[in-house]
Amino acid sequence: MKDLIVIGAGPAGLAAAIYGKRAGLDLVVIEKLSPGGQVMNTSEVENYPGFVDPVPGWELVSSMENQARRLEAEIISGEIVKIEKNEGEKCFDLFLNDGQNHKALSVIIAAGASYKKLDVPGEDKFIGRGVSYCATCDGPFFKDKVTALIGGGNTALEEADFLTKFAKKVYLIHRRDQFRGVKLLQKRVLSNNKIEPVYETVVTSINGEENVRSISIKNVKSGDEKSLDVDGVFIFVGIMSNTGFLPREILNEKGEVNVDMQMRSSIEGLFAAGDLRKDSRRQIVMAASDGATAALSAYEYVTDIPL
Fold first, then answer.
1. Rounded distance, CA 170 to CA 285, Å?
2. pLDDT band for position 307 (50/70/90)?
3. 243 and 101 within one domain
4. Which residues are identified as catalytic?
């Protein structure tokens, strides 16, 4: 039985592992995919303290992973499908999709969040054939092509700017009359002559045969509809917490984990950190802070368990 199991190896999970190992906890990190989380798909991070110049996302989280491994944190692959509190053994049972199960005195949930879909005709059909949720990953495939990017938050603006390194034109489509991202990012995209903002507009379908060839759009105020010829569609309309495997009693109406300032959920010994917790700002530095806080709380909880 482990002292602590950390679910997820993004910034929150890796920070938890670093602080947990330094506190002397016997722990393991279980990651569904590969260490790094969404940051792996971020071209440049310029707001993480300690770096004068922007640092590639993969480089930042790779350093976090290497730091955790230097402290002998064990990171294994696996997908958790269920967590149960075992009152008899005063521990948690974690069940994986391959039939394995693990036991731990405490658990930190740091499974992050996933990008939302538009849920329009053609979206699922053309995933990997023109539809993408990661400009950093797929931007190079659209060199000198015309693309559309949907969204108006920080991520959308960052990805639109990055996409112009390859695409000759980017339609930046947003349902409101102005973008929601920070002023610095708005200024950057609005000054980029490869980006054409399309406000107060939604995408109603993604069209093509073998690959994306166009999108149908609709102005939300006038009701006018038209088609735009594009080779690719990048979607950034929000994210949802990866909490489907968790007990409903610890989640709010948005599916986020309710925690206090110490990252404690309503179930003793179960903590949450990062993008899936209530009121998360979904910033790398804040996720890392959450992970550190959760690990210290887990340490206090484990050391206070009566023998």
1. 30
2. low
3. yes
4. 134, 137-138
